[in-house]
Amino acid sequence: MQQTKVLKPWPRWAKAICFTALAITVAFIFSNSMQVGVESSERSGLILSRLLEWLPFLGGWFTEHILRKLGHFLEYALAGFWLLLCLRSCTTQIRKYMARPLLAGILIALSDETIQLFVPGRSGQVTDVWIDSFGVVCGLLVTWCIVGIIEIDAAHKRGKTGGAV
Q: Taking a C-beta distance cutoff of 8 angstroms, is the pair 147, 7 a contact?
């Protein structure tokens, strides 16, 4: 009779990498929010001009506003990625505990927009909290799928079945 190998939480060094990367991502997000309005706008304008230089077909419809909203989404998708990996590093029962990284991502988004209320030339936007939260959800789901595929593939290569993802 073949014995199944149950998935285990990751080693301490892997947990440390995930939590450190999450902390760096959140620090990056908050540091962007602490930029005064003029500085933030100049930075966005510079990035937009470079993008339009490299990808001229974006001209005409790809505005600074769209760039900023896309930036919000991508920052938080990355946070969702790290939140899911932090969860997986601690437990194999991702489905059971999925609400925790989701709630953490939403709290980060709320904190981020609250920071902007106190920065000259910036304002906290409810729409940005929604965009940020959607980014977290997308990051969580994509990473959950990737982790699941990798773990299923690893189990098949070992010739054994693992625990549920």
A: no
And the tokens for 159?
A: 């010739």
Q: In angstroms, what CA-CA distances link 73 with 22, 57, 109, 129, 154?
A: 16, 22, 11, 10, 31
**95 Cβ contact partners less than 8 Å away, ≥ 6 residues apart:** 164, 165
CA-CA distance, 159 to 7, in Å (whole number)? 14
Question: Rounded distance, CA 111 to CA 74, Å?
Answer: 17
Asked if residue 128 lies in contact with residue 113, where contact means CB atoms within 8 angstroms, the answer is yes
Rounded Cα distance between 6 and 149, Å, is 16
Q: What is the pTM of this model?
A: 0.86
**pLDDT above 80 for 2:** no
Q: Where are the alpha helices (DSSP H) in the chain?
A: 12-33, 37-54, 64-90, 94-97, 99-116, 126-158
Residue 85 burial (CB count, 10 A): 23
Give the residue-averaged pLDDT of 139-147: 97
Number of residues that make up the chain: 165
pLDDT tens digits, one per residue of 17-50: 999 999 999 999 999 999 998 998 899 989 999 9
Give the list of residues 6+ apart from residue 24 with CB closer than 8 angstroms, or none.
Answer: none
* Cα–Cα dist 144/138, whole Å: 10
